[in-house]
Amino acid sequence: MAFDQRYGTRRYINFPPGGDDKHPGKRQAWLEKEHSTTFGHWLRNKVESELSISNESVSETVKWISHGARRIVNKYDVYDINGYTFRTKIRDGRIHQNSGVCVQATEMHISKEVVTYGKNFYYGVLREIWVLDYHIKKIPLFMCDWVDSRNGVKQDGLGYTLVELNRLGHKDDPFILASQARQVFYVKDQLDKKMSIVLMTPPKNYRDLYDDINEDFSTVIFPHNDNILPPVDPRDLGNESRDDYFRQDCVCKERGLIMMSSSNSYSSNQNRCDLCYCGLPARIRTSNTLDNPGRRFRVCHKSSSLSSGPKCSFWEWIDHEPVGMKIKIQKEVDVVKTDLQNCMSTVEDLRKEVHVIRGKLYNVIIVLVIFFVFYLMKN
User: Fold this and answer.
1) Shortest CA distance to 67 belongs to which of 49, 100, 45?
2) What pLDDT is stored for residue 218 in this prediction?
3) Domain GRF-type spans what residues (predicted)?
4) How much is the pLDDT for 92?
């Protein structure tokens, strides 16, 4: 939407004297160019004249915009808008490609007698990201290298759009509003290395809450994607109640119950209950198995074959890790250290032998040189 349509301002431009009435297309082209180059100056004068009559006749937004943006422009390498993450061409030399830009704009076609308008897609590469500061409103702009829409864009037989990124055009109009940009990425055509295939990038499923440029460009939520949190057990949502961690198989009432937290999966032995299922004190034993040698565990008195009455199957490990496993790993580490020391000593012995052999070869070479000199002197 044009500025005059959005804020209700109209501008009347007088055509230059001696205009070509036979070619209205040229008159319209001159009008568009004149409107583009002088609109800022006209708007400022128009606002000042309106404010001289009444301070409430012009909105605050139009007041600040009529003064123009700050002279200091902030530049960025990455910008998130419309559900896309854009990166400049210099920053984009990575695995992912985020510098492809596409915009749909209205194009004016001029002939001798008729002026027609049509929508056309323009493809390019993002070069710089500017953010203009109008004091009360910030407007991001994309500076792009646009492909020549006449000679650098074509369609193949399958309907794909092909662009020649090295053939640039529209150099007088490199800027677009960031809210108008759509993201594309380019794939090299295997049949023609100069051309690249244009593929549209779907926007990601999030809404940019910081984007106050235009709410109409917010990301569309696709119905086939899951955009809500899946059902989760409430105990996994950070419930402050600790009842979910209490053991129900211990009947000890005098000492505290066993409590295991996800942040500390092993509690100390002092806080553990020494009673088993049946309420009797448990005994501490040491495992002598090959898998867990030396690892302590707690077992009920009734588990012994010497005890009378029904048996109890209660038992649990006390040590967090098998002590025997640590010993076994330590032994393997010691063996590796010993092997490394042996290898180092062997290398040192070989180095000494090489040094001795080098000295012997040096002596042999000296003797041969002396014999050769005597031979030359005799002849």
Assistant:
1) 45
2) 37
3) 276-321
4) 74
Report pLDDT digits (tens) over 176-201: 999 999 999 899 888 888 999 999 88
If you count them, how many residues does the chain have? 379
3-class SS letters over the chain: CCHHHHHCCCCCCCCCCCCCCCCHHHHHHHHHHHHHHHHHHHHHHHHHHHHHHCCCCCCHHHHHHHCCCCCCCEEECEEEECCEEEECCCCCCCCCCCCEEEEEEEEEEECCCCEEEEEEEEEEEEEEEEEEECCCCEEEEEEEEEECCCCCEEECCCCCEEECCCCECCCCCCEEEHHHCEEEEEEECCCCCCCEEEEECCCCCCCCCCCCCCHHHCCCCCCCCCCCCCCCCHHHHCCCCCHHHECCCCCCCCCCCCECCCCCCCCCHHHCCCECCCCCEEEEEECCCCCCCCCEEEEEHHHCCCCCCCCCCCEEECCCCCHHHHHHHHHHHHHHHHHHHHHHHHHHHHHHHHHHHHHHHHHHHHHHHHHHHHHHHHC
Give the mean pLDDT of 147-160.
89
Paired tokens of 62: 């139009």
* Predicted TM-score (pTM) above 0.70: no
Of 155, 210, 156, 211, nearest to 181 by C-alpha is 211
| Tokens matching residue 64 | 């600040």
Count of other CB atoms within 10 angstroms of residue 250: 20
Q: Which amino acid is at 74?
A: N
Structure tokens at 374: 């005597």
